[in-house]
User: What shape does this take?
Amino acid sequence: MREYEKKCLYDRTLVSAIQEKQFMKEEDGVDILMKPTPEGEPARLDRRLREVIIAKRRLFAGRAAAGWTLSGERYRPDKVTYDLTETSVRCTERLIPIENDHQIAIYLFCSDKAQPGCPILVYLHGGGFTAGDIGLFYCQMKYIAEQSGAIVVFPEYRLAPECPFPGPLTDAWGTVQWVYDHADELGGDREKLMVAGDSAGGSLTNGCALSDEKGILRKIMGIYPGWDMSDYRTQTRYRWSYDCYEVVSEDRDLAYNRIDRIKSSMEKDQSSSQNLYLQGKTSPCNPLVSAVYASDDQLRRFPETVIVAAEYDYLRVGSDYAAKRLKSLGVPVRSIRYCGCDHGFLDMIGTIVQSEELCLVIAQELKEL
Assistant: This one.
């Protein structure tokens, strides 16, 4: 058995099981590519994820009792990743200037498969705008680079609360512009530029699309993206309810617990100066924060858009609405849903099989540019 296979915590044939069972389903006029669990068990948590959730409850019981801390968000021993690559992938770090004001670090991943003029991916990590770094996403980026033959660029944008809005977006869009200007130097094709991001990174991805007045982006991909940071109890664009989540009774408590993890943050005053990302500097209804509030004309400028959702994620309902709206405006949009999963599953490559499968989907999206 090869070394990388020893590290993986599941039978890798389970990836094929997901792909073989996937099917299309129409919901509210939008076709969704459904990615079932490997066992094909409907309306229930993936059995591997269920074990992880139970373990997390035990691990963080004491931390929750002590109260929220920033260090607790940034230091996550529960998020362990594994290297699934078989071939050589180089990772180099360099500093790039942003708006002639400051510099940030970016990480460039390039495999031996990469050819001159290959696609380029700028990946914007999640973490609630306050956490996340190359350590958590190194294995995912390396695997995507290997499987796609593309150049993968991972910026470590500045984080809140030290750098509130619009700092992270400034760094994200600044990275995209720098990559476009330096594509030849990197060995890629600026006409094959894609931006993707998970969670808060999905919000930043939307912000980049809204900032792209010259149309330099070919495709964007949001992974359980933050389309709406406003209070679900007062917004009227779509209806949010637990009824939106079909789940068997024995898994309901665990599934709702994971949904509530994000939902509870939305119940706080997003306009308050206590909000670590916004700090009262703008409204959560600013389209650069919550793209569902963008005008029709703004959204019509979006490039081809792929929206990936987790079945048991609070943000899924808002992103489903976003897919419907983009379709109504004539934007090429595709929706993918990972059944049995919760918010953040990409963080656990090598532990949760859907993380590996999603990396393969991202790689395929790059190949199709």
